[in-house]
Amino acid sequence: MTDFFKGIAPIKYEGPETTNEFAFRHYDPDEVILGKRMEDHLRFAVAYWHSLAYEGGDPFGGQTFLRPWFGAGMDQAKLKADAAFELFDILGAPFYAFHDLDARPEGATFAESKRNLEEITDYLGNKQASHKTKLLWGTANMFTHRRWMSGAATNPDPEVYAYAAATVKAMLDATHKLGGQNYVLWGGREGYETLLNTDLKAERAHAGRFLQQVVEYAHKIGFKGSILIEPKPQEPSKHQYDYDVATVYSFLKDFGLEKEVKLNIEQGHAILAGHSFEHELALANALGIFGSIDMNRNDYQSGWDTDQFPNNHPEMALAYYEVLRAGGFTTGGTNFDAKLRRQSLDPADLVLSHVGGMDTCARALRAAAYLFEDGPLEAARKARYAGWEREGAKAMLAQPLEAIEKAVLENNINPQPRSGRQERLENLWNHYL
């Protein structure tokens, strides 16, 4: 036990009228929505890196947070784990997620780093055995250390590729041992700064083979979870190869992995790619590669990935509607890839940021579920495409152009535009919100 969260009791649901800031207003884990408990719909996870490892820095300034577990030794790593599970208990969080570097200190050699990871994995396993919170997903940090400055799987140096492969193997082993339900690959530096020194074809080929090797090893060890890629268009690289959902799907198809790998989609990354979050979710569902989500928000004035906690439930409702249309989460969940502002110094800030985010998501899910259950939006969508249910329309897709032209001439086809009813559907959406 630590005393970092001393005096903060577990957060309970008290309803929308409560004035207690240390209570959930909208997130009731046991509320049944569409036949499933709210907790089981949302599957919240706390991000180890932002909540426990982040020191409060930004591009123009260094550390502002003072945490008792900050340091380079295994004692500090275990103290961090103690504090982590205290936070998870306060929030009632069913899951957490972590990078290797979040939980263990960096060693002088790979062998030392691996030993540290194995030791902290056992420690986390003991924590999981006596607490509710389990591992949603694990991943490897291959972007912070200077060795990764030119990428990991896409690095021009084959020794860095080898180090990356060994790093992912070790972290996949740890994730498997902890019962993680997913393993995520985020190519934080899998991209380029300038084409003047970049062989795009070679880097892309190496990235594809790397992912194939990861999938092969996951099968070999009997890992039953999902392998996920997290798209991101840029930052810190000028251009990253996993730009967005469409780009990643093309990549997976090229390397025969579209049936093996799904996506972990982040709200902030979708915005950086010039899309909406709901667009990326809908496309992933349409392509059969929807897996999990990272929930946060960007500051739309800043133009970069600010990783703030969500506070806009109408915006999030659009996202959860697409999650429901996808059939909901299986191995995935809602991971709060969000961090405190560097001026939010207190332990209470760390708790309440998650409370607000969980309430926002709960409110969004409830609104999305009401609309999904009643069905007017799906009915309107179906009506708009009803013409394609006719036998002649379906048969046309198999015909050559000259046969279609003949039918247009013989039947004097002269289609007239029909309203898309966008504003009426927006009014409908707002009614349910």
Brief characterization of the structure:
With 433 residues, the chain is of the alpha/beta class. It contains 16 helices and 14 strands. Helix 3 (74-91) runs parallel beside helix 5 (110-130), helix 10 packs parallel to helix 11 (313-325) and helix 11 crosses helix 12.
Count the beta strands: 14
**Rg, please?**
24 Å
Low-confidence parts lasting 5 or more residues at pLDDT below 50?
none
Q: What would you call the shape?
A: globular
- The named CATH superfamily of the largest domain: Divalent-metal-dependent TIM barrel enzymes
| Mean pLDDT over the residues | 97
| Content of β-strand | 5-15%
CATH architecture annotation of the largest domain: Alpha-Beta Barrel
> What is the helical fraction, as a range of percent?
40-55%
Largest sheet: 8 strands, parallel, barrel
End-to-end distance = 42 Å
**Treating each run of at least 4 consecutive H or I residues as one helix, how many helices?**
16
CATH class placement of the largest domain: Alpha Beta
In CATH terms, what is the fold-level topology of the largest domain?
Answer: TIM Barrel
Order of helices and strands: EEEEHEHHEHHEHEEHEEHEHHEHEHHHHH
Strand order of the largest sheet: 5-6-7-8-10-12-13-14
Structural class: alpha/beta
The tally of structural domains comes to 2
Question: How would you characterize this protein structure?
Answer:
The chain has 2 domains: 12-374, Divalent-metal-dependent TIM barrel enzymes (TIM Barrel), CATH 3.20.20; 392-432, no CATH class. It is built from 16 helices and 14 strands. The chain has an 8-stranded parallel β-barrel, surrounded by 4 helices. The longest helix has 28 residues, at 347-374. With 433 residues, it is α/β, with parallel strands linked by helices. α3 (74-91) runs parallel beside α5 (110-130) and α6 (158-177) runs parallel beside α7. α6 links the parallel β7 and β8 (182-185). It is an enzyme of class 5 (isomerase). Mg(2+) 2 binds at residues 266, 269, 305, 307. Its cofactor is Mg(2+). Homotetramer. It catalyses: alpha-D-xylose = alpha-D-xylulofuranose.
